[in-house]
Amino acid sequence: MKKHLASAIFLIFLVQNICFFVEVEAGDGFIRTRGIHFMLNGDPFYANGFNAYWLMYVASDPSQRSKVSAAFKEASSHGLTVARTWAFSDGGYKPLQYAPGSYNADMFKGLDFVISEARRYGMKVVLSLANNYESFGGKKQYVKWARSHGQYLNSDDDFFRNPVVKGYYKNHIRTVLNRYNTFTGVVYKNDPTIMAWELMNEPRCTSDSSGRTIQAWATEMASYVKSIDRNHLLEVGLEGFYGQSTPQRRTLNPNFDIGTDFIANNRIPGIDFATAHAYPDQWITNSNDQAQLSFLNNWLNSHIQDAQYILRKPLLITEFGKSWKDSGFSSYQRDLLYNTVYYKIYSSAKRGGAAAGGLFWQLLSEGMDSFRDGYEIVLSQSPSTANLIAQQSHKLYQIRKIFSRMRNIQRWKRAKAARRGDWTDRNRGRRIGN
Predict the structure, then answer these.
(1) What is the pLDDT of residue 327?
(2) Is 320 helix (H, G, I), strand (E, B) or coil?
(3) Across 123-248, where does the E strand assignment appear?
(4) What is the annotated localization of this protein (predicted)?
(5) Domains and CATH numbers, the chain
(6) Mean pLDDT value across residues 304-323
(7) Of these residues, 117, 239, 319, 376, which one is catalytic?
(8) Annotated catalytic, 319?
(9) From the candidates 202, 235, 239, 376, which is the catalytic residue?
(10) Confidence class of residue 255 from pLDDT cuts 50, 70 and 90?
């Protein structure tokens, strides 16, 4: 009885939301947003996916590309639909951009291959355009380049303020968006394999905790991206920390003050959806697993609610995980964290809510021990976690399938009503029968 009641309630939620979905008919393969939902070819889209920052780096060596193919193949077999990865590597070892505006052809071909493999396995990619941190260059490298060209800069945060540095970054945006893929023959800005651009991985500006600096920078850069590419979605890259626009929400933050504002930054014109990360083991250190799960529940609840009722945009949890390097780690505790994230997403999605998916950090193929960071998942080596991932993929697929079926029913009813109307018009005033 309880099962039938739950099914009835679920269908009521779907019926309440079906009127929203029937109007969307675009069939060009690009993911778009409509209100608090992602849409793909007229149906709602849910992103169960993964992070793999290393894809371009590894694919730049043709002899190593089998690892990229294996990752996509394994991910696809577990129903994963989205990969998030870096479209940057600035200065240093094996750079994509070895000087402002100067690019390494082999690295770009590596990124071409990544996108072509995603396409081959029916997946979408989120491409991040810069890094807040020093790894792969980041904002520090951009500031270093500007200093070498005579700019007097006080800190790495001048990445967000200095016109010369911003010019370098805009040039990178323009170069990536206009890149011709040597494998597919499609320019990136015209390729539906790409789900979205990300302005920066975890932007932080600790020198301006008011949030004004990042707000101005993200506003300027969002406008610039959209001036080149109207096909793709855009997000900031936020971890989800609340700022001065919502002081009552700041109590939910871990003890960080980094100059971002989840509400204000995501309200910027051109920002299509909200993102949040979730690392309780990093953010509230010296706490037990129970405290971390309690934090995670509150963190997810607040962001899902705010995306739905304040921002009115979809929410993607673009990073989450638990490290085996933590003392007392067990795969059971990691699975509890995954299950918590997945349950919150599914509970929102099945009611037509704003939570649109989650991307765990991070997926590795076998034989990539040098890339292990504590958070990695090798699906063949983590059966319990891999099973949770596959189950979530199936649940989200079922929601999409039900919405699609109901949309088709609505279309059939509209067509039937139209035919009846045509028949009535043709026979109005005509005597029927004897």
Answers:
(1) 85
(2) strand
(3) 124-128, 194-198, 233-235
(4) Secreted
(5) 37-409 (3.20.20.80)
(6) 98
(7) 319
(8) yes
(9) 202
(10) confident
